[in-house]
Amino acid sequence: MPITGKHRRKKSGPIARGILAVGAGGAVVALPLLGATGAHAAEQSAPAVAQSAQQSAKTYKVVSGDYLAKIAAQHKIKGGWEKLYQDNREVIGGNPSLILPGMKLTLGAQASGSASTASAPAAKAETKTEAKTATKAAPAAKTESAATTTKAADSDSTGWTTPVANATVTTQYHASGSMWSSGYHTGSDFSAATGTVVRAVGPGTVVSAGYDGAYGNEVIIKHADGMYSQYAHQSQLMVSVGQTVTGGQQIGLSGATGNVTGPHLHFEIRTTPSYGSDVDPIAYLRLHGVSI
Q: Do 194 and 174 form a contact (C-beta atoms < 8 A)?
């Protein structure tokens, strides 16, 4: 006859993350919650990945003579100067051509950070991070659309070059004289016999191509940084408005059209496509790595 009565259940003891199950013989078995333990390990893996990505990022301090394409090439940045600019847009500002000594640029941080976030199991945090990254990248999209790294003859890896081969400046920028309506020379004149190939100094889009009074046959190109280059007195034009060009691409032939005393190429860099917004063209080319 079986014995009736109450039996005291043994205490489970300090078994973490477990459950108690009573077997047929009354023995108490501790079953660890393996699923919970695995989730806990996965949660801890995300910060570890992020920390690893952060450690792989480098900081570079800009020195005199630096420009984005040069830094990107030296440090083998995947995506070139466009990616470097996108990752450091808040530091550099709206003009990628104007970086100053002392600026601290992050090399590769944005790309690494996004990759580590995407690998984390926390879906909600991942979505938020990706949305923020996309928002930050949006303002740079328009600037980057016309950018290219096509290498041209007599140019370096930046895709920028002089407007004519074997470039020799005959009249400097801001030279003064009564022959100019502004009282000074608004560009730099390059020695170029009639028929010399005229080429785009950098990648961009043609915004003007035709005859323009004293400038004769001219071409104006808008570049990715918002600046404009002008090529005047040409004998023949070989591009049209709206056409995309690469650095070093032929856009015409030099000549002596307009108000000139002889064949040459008048070259300007402007902040707008209009007369009177000129800046030093030689300094601008040097900023893009062109030796002149």
A: no
- What is the β-pairing status of strands 228-237 and 250-254? antiparallel
Q: Is it true that 46-144 and 169-287 share their CATH fold?
A: no
Question: Are residues 154 and 145 in contact, defined by beta-carbon separation less than 8 angstroms?
Answer: no
Q: What is the pTM of this model?
A: 0.48
Q: What span, in angstroms and rounded, lies between the C-alpha atoms of 251 and 235? A: 11
CATH topology assigned to domain 46-144: Membrane-bound Lytic Murein Transglycosylase D; Chain A (3.10.350)
Domain spans, the chain:
46-144, 169-287
Which CATH number is associated with domain 169-287?
A: 2.70.70.10
Backbone phi, then psi, for 22, in 5-degree steps? -100, 120
User: What is the spatial distance between Cα 133 and Cα 226, in angstroms, rounded to a whole number?
Assistant: 24
- Cα gap 68→284, rounded to integer Å: 14
Residue type, 135: T
Count of positions (residues) in the chain: 292
Question: Torsion over CA of 24, 30, 34 and 36, rounded to 10 degrees?
Answer: 120
**pLDDT tens digits, the chain, 292 residues: what are they?**
454 544 444 454 544 444 444 444 444 444 444 444 444 444 455 455 445 544 567 899 988 667 777 888 888 888 887 888 888 888 887 767 667 778 889 997 654 443 333 333 343 444 344 434 333 433 333 333 333 333 333 444 568 999 999 989 988 887 876 555 556 789 999 999 999 999 999 999 999 999 999 899 999 999 999 999 999 999 999 999 999 999 999 999 999 999 888 999 999 999 999 988 999 999 999 999 998 8
Contact 230, 267 (CB under 8 A): yes
Please report the DSSP string for 127-183 in residue order: HHHHHHHHHHHHHHHHHHTT------TT--TTS---SSTT--EEE-TT-B-TTSTTS
Helix, strand, coil % over all residues of the chain, rounded to 5: 30, 25, 45
